[in-house]
Structure formats: C-alpha cells, structure tokens
Write a sequence for this structure.
C-alpha cells in the first residue's frame, strides 16, 4: 500500500478477512511495517508490503486493510478508522470504514479488469475516473462483480501541457512541501560549474522560450507556443502534479485560483486562465472519489511520454539536444525521479527492498533532500538509478552503444526497470516500457523513427516472461490468458496514420508524435507480431494514448513451407482513452460522420527474403486487421451525477453553432457512431462465459457520458471472438519484408 504523508512516520499495514460480503472484519491474515522516506519537510512517502501470517490470500474473498500511522515525536498512532482521518473523507464503502480489495479469480470467466489513460486536469470534458467509484459503491460487496485490477496505461500526469493556474498552485506548494527551493542549472561555464535559477523566475504562462532554448524541448516548435508555456521543471512541481491528481487535500479553494488571475495581464491570458480554472474544477470535484477508488482496487501504472514531456526520447536528434543541455537533462531526471517514487515503487516494490537498486535510490533521495538539493554526489547517484543516459565527457551528449542494427542509450546496469509482469491463477499481464528501451537507426538521419523496443528489450520484456509463464504451466499452473499493456497503439485510425505520414514527409517530425508509432518502423512492428505469435496463439493488448476508445482484432498467420497448415494467432487490441482529455477531433470521429469514411479491413503479407519473380513460395507471414463495431450505447443502473458544476467543454467548444445544429449535435442518433468512443472514457474488460477456451469471446465495455444527458453514464460494448480464423487468400500486391 503506497501512501503520501505530511510527517515522518512508521506505517503499519494490517490486512483482514472481511466476511458477510465485506461487511464484517474478521481475523488478521497479513501484516507489514515500513518507515517513510523524506522527500521534503512536509512530504514523506512509503510503500508498505504485508507478509501473510499463516495461509496465502485466496481468490473469492473480500479483504479489508487498515493503515496505522505513528508520527515521529508522538506516542499514539492513528489509523484509517480514527475520527480525525475520517473527517478528511472515508476510503471505505462499508460501515467499518476500511478499504477493501479482491484478488483475481481462478476462472478467466470471472476476471474483470479496468483500464484507461490520459487524465489531464484541464483537459476537455468531465473526468471519467470518478465513475469507477460509482461502480464500486454499487458492487463493493459482490466479490464476483468487483474489478480485480486497474491499469492506468499512460499519462497519469501531464508534465508539459500544464494549465497556468495548475502551475501557479505547484509553484506555491513546492516550498511548503519540500521546505526548500530547488535551484535549476541553466548554463554550464567552462570550468564545469553551472548558473542556477529559481523556478519562480519562470511563472505560469512564461516558460515556452525557456523550454525551447534552455531545455531543447520540441513540443512547441511548430506554431504552438502555448503547449509548453507552463511546463513543469522542478522536482517539487512533478511531485505536486501526482498529489493533485490523486488526492483532494492540497487543492486550494476555487475562489483563490480565480483571484490569482489578476496577477496575469492581458485580456486573452485572463480569458484562458478562467477557462482552464473552470475545466480544472470539473476535475477537482471528483478527486476525492478517485482517491477512494484507487484505495480499493489493485492499481498498476506505466510510464509514458507526458509523465516527462510529450516528445520524451522521440528520436535520436531529441536525445542529443535535450540531454546535452543542463536544464533539459535536469527536467528529464526530475520527471523520472517523480515517476520512480509515485508510480514504479508501487508497481514493483521488490525493486525497492534492501540491497536492491530502489533502496539505494531512496537513500540518495533522502540525502539529497536533507541537503536542500545541494548534494551533487547524491543527485548523480539518483540519475544512475532512474536510468539517466550516461554522458560523453567530450561532447556532452548522451552515450550510445550498438545493438545489432540500432543504437541504444547507454545507462548504468543498476538502473531500475519500468517494465514488469503480473501473474494470477488465470492470467498474466506484461507491462512494457517502450520509452526508455528504444533502438535508434544508426545509418539514417537522427530524426528517423526509432524501434519502440530495441532487440534486447524484445527478449527481456516479452520473450523472457512468456517463457517463464510456460515453465510455470508445465509445473501445474493454469495461466490461460496473456495481456500486454502497450503504451502506443499497434493499430490506429487511418486518418491519424495519414496525417503522421504527411507530416513526416514534410520534415515535421515533432508534430503529432510523428514517428512515435509502431507502424513507422516496420521491422519493429513485424518483429512484435512475430514474437507474440511465436509464443501465444492469442494475446490481448491494452492501450491508451490516442484519446478514443475502440476494439480491433488482428489475425496473424506464420507459414512454414514444410507444413500444410500455417500457425495462427489472434491479437485483440482494446483501447481506452482519454479519461479527461477529449477534443474536437475525437468528438467528430465518435459520431456518424465517421461512417462516411469507415475503417476498412487491411491485409498484408511478407517474406524475410524477397521471393524471385513469379515464385509460388508461400509468404513467411501474413495478417489481417478488422475493426470491431461499436454497439449502441446502453443505459447503466448507476445513479445520475452532478459532480461537475461547469458545463463540459465538449459543448462549449461547439457553441459557435446555434439552434438546430446544436440540437443535432446532442441528438442520440447522430452520436451513435459505428467504430470509436471519442468522449472521455474508461474500459472494463471481461470474458464471456464459455465451455471451451477456443470459443471464447472478450467483452470490452466503454463507459462515457453522452451529450444528450451528461448526468447519466452509458456504456458502449464491443465483443470480439477469440476463435481462430480461416486463412484468407494471399494478395501479392500487399507486400512487405523484415
């Protein structure tokens, strides 16, 4: 259990069996204790692991837990059931006031997984994540209906696209939480020393040029200076972004945020501030519910671009430019350190136990903080453990090493890993890191698209865990399903592919994440398909990033000329995005307008060695992609909500059209598109009950708020068969090789 506290404390975790459908606390079954790590004067973190006392925890049971806090200098501990803490908001759905959880079931038919990505405080539309709390209010006592796992598949915070009032809050809170102010290195002198500046010198709305010139960041290069105008720079700012995303404690009153508007001149700036403040309030209204939901569902997270900056490690050119500048390197390290403490520590606590790299990281962080950010030796050690690329002393640029046909960033062998694997009695989940394990082409220009996974990453992140699961199954385990959390979509809308290809051809590689997609590096794309089909006959991909929800089925066949029948694999991609960052483009493709340009089925074949002309040799592989249609929105039995007082931006953006056009936009018939959900959403994944694995169907329910009634959530369902498909005829026109 991961917690953030304002005081240095010893934290004790007690886990209990909760009988009578979770209502009655029974015997203690596990216990653990941990000491907080001091990040600052009023910021202390700890992830406590409990050890079972007698028998292991079992599926089919509801467990409750309590946290006891013994603050330094006090004699009496407080717990989650202490009245003073309950006044801040109960984390429970029961009268005993303790949060609860359930383990994944033995049967795949009973497994329920929630996933989603991209939650920006001032993003368009209402925050959808509080709806998970509504689901738990309804189902907390039903072990067979509760979610077993929650996967946040990227962009838990936005380090780059930050609202001015959000940065205003962070700048005010930073010195309060840390008790000191981090001085950021900007210029390096010939003697190796730096010129340091306070983050306060770059107030909200005035960071674009610093981000571009002194950091080397590129999000704002092409006519979008507002993108990085309030970019996060300091360690405190990144920490506060997480604390504000998951807890209501530090949020100031709305009036204080609006009053701060007077500090910024200009009518347009004032208008923008007011709009962002209003959009943030729709976020703030649900944060307490988000905190309770996260306390009651085992939650796993993944690092992605916006956790640092939208263009993070985009290509080799970016790495050389940003990592060779003192401030650029500092910003990347601050973002990575915050990710390690706020996400990775909870994902992989085994990396943070004694004698592991994470424990060394925590020791150096505490030492760096106690020195008020002046201990440069500790700061360099932090860089080692969070995986900052090593620097060439002569050029000042990041060092690379050759790995087969690509270059990879060289880092310390003790650096923490951001990828990991979760296993239960019935399924495995591989969480990939496609951001820090990239392979950059060495024989082309430095802006060429990279492999999102270098060759060794394929072996470590995919091949090794799949082989380990196979070994477990041979020893009696029954892990039936493989899920992979993929930060970047394997397949996306054709219009997105077309725009990115157009931008790339014009050299605008820093627009729309151009090059940051699997299909931009065909070798890596086909290698991923090859790895998956070699080790599994079916795989479920969970992805986000793209700001819409969808379901896609990809059938893959590997041919062997010595065998009559090809090896067949089914890959289903389940996408859920954004939780709070909908935009006009996704609203439009959500509607029936998209039906005028439907996604067509795509097929492709390939050979490792190109065949000679008129050869009848079978291809080495072929695949076919089909978009699963979205069923009409279904009403849910959840109560109506009025948690946001402001009108959703999804409607205010379209106020330029009046009268009948406005009515048409909210009309349900018009909103019932056939492919994607373009409003803020999260997905719930279940498996339809079946007698055989071969005839299974995966069910993907996307929850969202419809324009025709923004108070009542609906769900759109996708159903994808997991049965093997017949091999289609081979088209010699659609040819590729790897």
């Amino acid at each position: 259990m991961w917690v953030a506290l304002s005081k240095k404390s010893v934290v004790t975790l007690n886990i209990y069996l909760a009988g009578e459908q979770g209502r009655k606390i029974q015997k203690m079954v596990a216990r653990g204790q941990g000491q907080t790590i001091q990040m600052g004067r009023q910021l202390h973190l700890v992830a406590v692991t409990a050890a079972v006392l007698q028998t292991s925890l079992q599926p089919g049971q509801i467990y409750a837990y309590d946290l006891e806090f013994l603050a330094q200098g006090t004699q009496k501990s407080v717990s989650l059931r202490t009245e003073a803490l309950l006044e801040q908001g109960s984390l429970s759905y029961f009268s005993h006031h303790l949060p609860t959880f359930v383990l994944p079931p033995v049967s795949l038919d009973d497994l329920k997984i929630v996933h989603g990505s991209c939650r920006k405080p001032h993003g368009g539309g209402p925050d959808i994540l509080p709806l998970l709390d509504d689901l738990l209010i309804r189902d907390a006592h039903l072990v067979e209906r509760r979610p077993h796992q929650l996967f946040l598949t990227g962009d838990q915070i936005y380090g780059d696209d930050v609202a001015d009032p959000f940065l205003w809050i962070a700048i005010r809170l930073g010195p309060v939480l840390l008790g000191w102010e981090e001085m950021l290195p900007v210029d390096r002198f010939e003697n190796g020393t730096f010129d340091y500046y306070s983050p306060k010198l770059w107030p909200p709305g005035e960071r674009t040029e610093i981000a571009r010139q002194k950091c080397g960041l590129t999000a704002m290069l092409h006519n979008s200076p507002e993108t990085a105008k309030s970019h996060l720079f300091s360690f405190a700012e990144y920490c506060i972004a997480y604390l504000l995303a998951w807890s209501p404690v530090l949020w100031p009153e709305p009036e204080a945020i609006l009053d701060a508007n007077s500090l910024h001149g200009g009518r347009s700036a004032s208008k923008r501030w007011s709009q962002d403040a209003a959009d943030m309030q729709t976020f703030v209204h649900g944060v307490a519910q988000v905190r309770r939901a996260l306390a009651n569902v085992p939650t796993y997270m993944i690092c992605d671009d916006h956790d640092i900056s939208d263009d993070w490690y985009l290509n080799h050119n970016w790495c050389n430019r940003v990592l060779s500048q003192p401030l650029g390197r500092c910003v990347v390290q601050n973002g990575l350190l915050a990710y390690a403490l706020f996400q990775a520590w909870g994902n992989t606590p085994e990396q943070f136990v004694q004698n592991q790299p994470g424990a060394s990281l925590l020791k150096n962080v505490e030492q760096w903080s106690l020195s008020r950010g002046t201990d440069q030796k500790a700061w360099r050690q932090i860089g080692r453990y969070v995986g900052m690329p090593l620097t060439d002393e002569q050029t000042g640029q990041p060092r690379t090493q050759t790995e087969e046909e690509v270059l990879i960033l060289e880092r310390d062998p003790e650096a923490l890993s951001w990828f990991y694997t979760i296993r239960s009695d019935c399924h495995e989940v591989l969480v990939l890191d496609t951001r820090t394990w990239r392979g950059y082409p060495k024989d082309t220009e430095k802006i060429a698209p990279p492999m999102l996974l270098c060759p060794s990453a394929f072996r470590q992140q995919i091949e090794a865990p799949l082989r380990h699961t196979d070994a477990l199954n041979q020893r009696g385990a029954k892990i039936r399903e493989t899920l992979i959390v993929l930060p970047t979509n394997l397949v996306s809308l054709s219009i997105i592919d077309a725009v990115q290809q157009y931008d790339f051809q014009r050299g605008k590689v820093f627009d729309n994440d151009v090059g940051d997609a699997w299909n931009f590096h065909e070798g890596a794309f086909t290698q991923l398909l090859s790895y998956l089909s070699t080790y599994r006959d079916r795989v479920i991909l969970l992805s986000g990033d793209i700001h819409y929800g969808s379901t896609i089925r990809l059938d893959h066949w590997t041919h062997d000329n010595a065998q009559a029948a090809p090896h067949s694999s089914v890959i289903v991609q389940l996408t859920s995005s954004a939780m709070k960052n909908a935009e006009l483009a996704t609203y439009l493709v959500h509607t029936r307008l998209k039906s005028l340009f439907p996604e067509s089925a795509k097929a492709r074949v390939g050979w490792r060695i190109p065949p000679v002309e008129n050869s009848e040799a079978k291809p080495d592989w072929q695949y076919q992609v089909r978009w699963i249609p979205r069923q009409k929105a279904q009403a849910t039995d959840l109560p109506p909500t009025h948690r946001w007082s402001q009108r959703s931006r999804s409607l205010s953006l379209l106020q330029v059209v009046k009268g009948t056009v406005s009515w048409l936009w909210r009309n349900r018939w018009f909103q019932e598109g056939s492919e994607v959900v373009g409003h803020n959403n999260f997905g719930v994944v279940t498996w339809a009950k079946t007698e055989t694995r071969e005839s299974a169907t995966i069910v993907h329910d996307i929850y969202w708020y419809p324009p025709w009634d923004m108070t009542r959530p609906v769900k759109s369902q996708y159903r994808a068969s997991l049965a093997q498909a017949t091999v289609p005829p081979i088209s010699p026109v659609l040819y590729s090789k790897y």
